[in-house]
């Protein structure tokens, strides 16, 4: 059961983050509803990764609050492990365990953190691997798969923890061009099925197809929030116009 079904699923209020003297996040406010797909874009160094990392508590925050499903982020211990399984994260580098098979990569969390029986975890993992199109690779090791296949395994591995929200931090930027779409297609489908997602990406086709809202960040701030068509055709801020003129 949700702690509070009226609260936004992700509720970020007044969040600041410093690294020494440098302020990477400045008063971030962002509420994300259940089933929403939010695409975060902005220049390199604008704080997109830092924002993602604060949401699953890979980084602490210096001010403000972050709540997931009505519950403030815990500081440590068992609640933190629970949070990490509520918030799935897929990074630019796939981070699969090299010495484990694809199937073992996907069953590890469910067995160790969620306490599933091996057989149960394997059945669920196979279902997810089929869903992302790599079921036939289950017995192989990560190095035997292409980058696009590994990233789809990484998505399946996150989904196996039954997260409430999925964070994607530039999930296709390390991939060869011909593999980008096979990963984005899985993400589009996931969004269409109702998964709540925060996606840092410069793939505008994906944003147009899948995003409910686009969040534009610059210099640690949210500068602009708009629907994808509106944002790409009529960016309001000078910084967004400047950024778009460089990437489009
Ligand atoms: P983006 O993902 O938008 O490119 P990041 O969130 O990675 O930006 O970084 C935002 C800023 O914070 C950058 O200037 C970066 O150098 C700085 N930063 C990020 N992580 C650290 C860290 N662990 N220590 C010091 N500075 C950091
Ligand atoms: Mg980044």
From TrEMBL:
Q: What class of enzyme is it?
A: translocase
Which reaction(s) are listed as its catalytic activity?
A: a polar amino acid(out) + ATP + H2O = a polar amino acid(in) + ADP + phosphate + H(+)
Keywords, comma-separated and alphabetical = Amino-acid transport, ATP-binding, Cell membrane, Membrane, Nucleotide-binding, Transport
- Localization in the cell: Cell membrane
Residue ranges occupied by any ABC transporter domain in the UniProt entry: 10-244
Give any Gene Ontology cellular component: plasma membrane
Q: What is its EC number?
A: 7.4.2.1
GO molecular function per UniProt: ATP binding; ATP hydrolysis activity; ATPase-coupled polar amino acid-transporter activity
Q: Which PANTHER family match?
A: AMINO ACID IMPORT ATP-BINDING PROTEIN (PTHR43166), GLUTAMATE_ASPARTATE IMPORT ATP-BINDING PROTEIN GLTL (PTHR43166:SF9)
Task: Describe the family membership recorded for this protein in Swiss-Prot or TrEMBL.
Answer: Belongs to the ABC transporter superfamily.
Designated name of the protein: ABC-type polar-amino-acid transporter
């Amino acid at each position: 059961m949700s702690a509070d079904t009226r609260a936004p699923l992700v509720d970020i209020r007044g969040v600041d983050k410093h690294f020494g003297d440098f302020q990477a996040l400045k008063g971030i406010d962002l509420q994300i509803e259940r089933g929403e797909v939010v695409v975060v874009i902005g220049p390199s160094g604008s704080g997109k990764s830092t924002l993602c990392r604060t949401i699953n508590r890979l980084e602490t925050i210096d001010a403000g609050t972050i709540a997931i499903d009505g519950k403030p982020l815990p500081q440590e211990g068992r609640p933190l492990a629970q949070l990490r399984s509520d918030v799935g994260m897929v990074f630019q580098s796939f981070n699969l365990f090299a010495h484990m098979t694809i199937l073992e990569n996907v069953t590890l969390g469910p067995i160790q953190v969620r306490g599933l029986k091996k057989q149960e975890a394997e059945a669920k993992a196979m279902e997810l691997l089929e869903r992302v199109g790599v079921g036939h690779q289950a017995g192989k090791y990560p190095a035997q798969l292409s980058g696009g296949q590994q990233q789809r395994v990484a998505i399946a591995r996150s989904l196996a923890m039954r997260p409430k929200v999925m964070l994607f931090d530039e999930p296709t930027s390390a991939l060869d061009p011909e593999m980008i779409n096979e990963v984005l297609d899985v993400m589009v489908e996931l969004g269409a099925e109702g998964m709540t997602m925060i996606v840092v990406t410069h793939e505008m086709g994906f944003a147009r197809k899948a995003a409910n809202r686009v969040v534009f960040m610059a210099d640690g701030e949210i500068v602009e929030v708009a629907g994808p068509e509106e944002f790409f055709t009529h960016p309001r801020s000078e910084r967004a116009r400047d950024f778009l003129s460089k990437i489009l």
